[in-house]
From TrEMBL:
This is HECT-type E3 ubiquitin transferase E3D. It comes from the Eukaryota. Residues 125-138, 151-162 have a biased composition (Low complexity). GO terms for molecular function: cyclin binding; ubiquitin conjugating enzyme binding; ubiquitin protein ligase activity. Pfam families: HECT_2. Residues 107-162 are annotated as: Disordered. It comes from Serpula lacrymans var. lacrymans (strain S7.9). GO terms for biological process: proteasome-mediated ubiquitin-dependent protein catabolic process; protein autoubiquitination; protein monoubiquitination; protein polyubiquitination. InterPro entries: UBQ-conj_enz_E2-bd_prot. GO terms for cellular component: cytosol; nucleus; ubiquitin ligase complex.
Amino acid sequence: MLDLLGKASDRRLIDQSVILDGPIKVRLEKARQQDREQRDAFVEKLMQHSESGRYHTQDAVLQVPKVRDLNGLVSLPEFIRESMPQEARVLGVDAIARSSSEVSSQALANEVAVRKKGSRNRSMSAPSLSWLRPSSRSGHPADSKTKKSPSRPGSSGKGSSRQAALDISYIAEHHETLQHVLVFVSVGGLASNTDLSAEVLPTVESGTEGDLLIIRNDAVSSPPLTLPARIASGVQDIKLRNDYYELKLSVVSTSRSQSYDDRTSAPLMDATQLSSLKPTNFICTSCSLPLVHSSAIVEYKDLPSEHWEELVDAWMCHTDQTLHEQITKHGRGFWPEQGQALVGGSYVLFEDTSVVKSTITTTERPKRAEDWRLVRCMCGAMVGRCQERHEDGGVITMYRLLKYAIRPVSPTAKPQRVPLSAFIVEDMSEYVQAHATYRFVISDEEDERPRLLMWLFKPSIRLSYMLPTEYFLKKNGSIHAAKVLYKVIRPSTKSTDLKDLLNKYPGFPQAEYLFYPLDICRRLAGLLRESTRSYPESMRTMTGLDVGWLHRA
């Protein structure tokens, strides 16, 4: 027993042996044979793959990222699931302007890279292509250094050294009274004294005029650049300025501009358009929550100008004249009745029964010593104002919702896509017609602090442009716009310093004041900053103000 305990302490029995009988020996031999066959087959497979230089079953699959259309409609669940880019989470107006160029250039570079790669690429685990060349396999690395392969498979070295197109950014302004188009072109990647040539291409229907411009430098040319008016086709004179090129093109026809102005002079979302659209709901443009059930609204009516009382006072030049009964009735404003909505320039007046109370909140105190209180959607967006009216039947709340904060939804008609800047220009144009003033101070609705100085330099102009980078605006287009001079007021500017700031610029001490939500002021500043980049650097300021434009509908 002691001998067994000693062997157990060593955890082994030295004098043990195993005897293999016939069946066990045969099974072990078969296992060894199968293992050898598997090893040989594996080595042979490796050799076959090494001859081709790659593993055929490991092709890289390129996943093209989905780029959502910024102007596309999204549902509320899609909006909630979608995360905002980190670059777009900014707080101040200056931060929006700074991040716009960086984010847009990176996004554009990624998109171009994806398009160039195609649908197939080399595997990351495959060896480099240099070891497949004859010089590398023959054991002479010095020969491989002297021979240069083409930069792109299937292309020659001569073809790869050529540039596909000029890096062009431009803006073309149509001056109708002078009957010419001024084009300012900036070219990247070229010396400042490079000679360029320009040519206007004829259209298919007319061989003598066209609206496409081509800029050439030897064998390299730009993509076709759209012009805002018809120009005589042929070679055009292009002049070199300080840091840009300038063209002055004579307009040969004005029929297109007249029809374009007639089409764009219609009001934005007026009573006629809403009546034909027959919306069932008005939803919030930020989160798509329903704000107004318009199925009970049977009539839309246009309101007169905001300054109609001033016009009435101008008409009544004698004290003994009596006002019309209807004018006297509406002396304190126009208000909708049940089943009715009144459409103003940039807002729509709704009666209490048609508004969805569960999706909106109102402030307790009015703003700017008025009876109006701010109205917000549940998502936090400011959508308008409300006011309580004392009628014979009791107290009724009237809601004044902003057109750019609500969107009509109709099952039978497609809603119009009106840019935000079009409503801002419409508000300024109303003051131009009533008071002949072109200077404005844009303030935010919440804090009542000035955010922008705006000079409506040219209320109506046709532009064609191509931006160096895109973020808030489209990359290129031919649009109806308003040319403005502006200045972004720093958030640190106090109200007491505003008077001194206005005195620096002519005409601004008599400027009109427009109030918008803070988010709208930030978006407006971002649009203006990006439009400024369409001009050459030496033309981006005038009288101490920045030059830009706003897209009209």
